[in-house]
Design a protein that fits this description.
This protein is of the alpha+beta class. Helix content is about 35%, strand content about 35%. The chain starts with 5 loop residues before the first helix and ends with a strand.
């Protein structure tokens, strides 16, 4: 996996995803198999009910799948565009502290990008993200994120 230093990551966030940077979405862990993002309850991402706003949780789930896709495309130097086409979140419990969003489907992601390089057809990749409370490990939400990859036209 392509490595990023902390200042490069912050620059990347503010350049490409300023809303996620503002809400406090951070990378907890990233390797070739797993990506985990972290979101901590704060004034910037709260809702009136004392928990993390659903849109901030959706952004953290999206980043757990989108950042690895972005890095895989850059690492392969692939002329591929990516677009999120569907996001389905199910919320089980209020998120009040620190939450980890974990995606373990990065092999599927890598294969989808490889297929997209060799075809003009759009390739969809469905990824699952599980959100758990950092302290208790209790499940808080689950998301299904669908990315579409398509080779750039010349």
């Amino acid at each position: 996996m392509l490595r990023m230093s902390s200042w490069k990551y912050r620059f990347f966030l503010w350049r490409y995803l300023p809303a996620a940077a503002w809400m406090g979405v951070r990378i907890q862990f990233l390797d070739d198999l797993v990506c985990t993002t972290r979101l901590t309850y704060s004034w910037f991402n709260r809702n009136p009910f004392g928990s993390i706003y659903f849109a901030a949780q959706s952004a953290a789930a999206e980043m757990a799948t989108g950042l690895p896709a972005f890095l895989i495309i850059r690492q392969m130097k692939a002329p591929v565009n990516m677009l999120i086409t569907d996001l389905d979140m199910s919320f089980v419990k209020q998120a009040c502290g620190t939450v980890y969003f974990r995606c373990e489907d990065l092999d599927d992601l890598r294969q989808a990008v490889r297929r997209a390089i060799h075809t003009d057809d759009p390739i969809s990749c469905r990824l699952t993200v599980h959100a758990v409370d950092a302290e208790t490990g209790e499940p808080l939400s689950e998301g299904i994120v669908v990315w579409r990859f398509r080779r750039r036209r010349k």
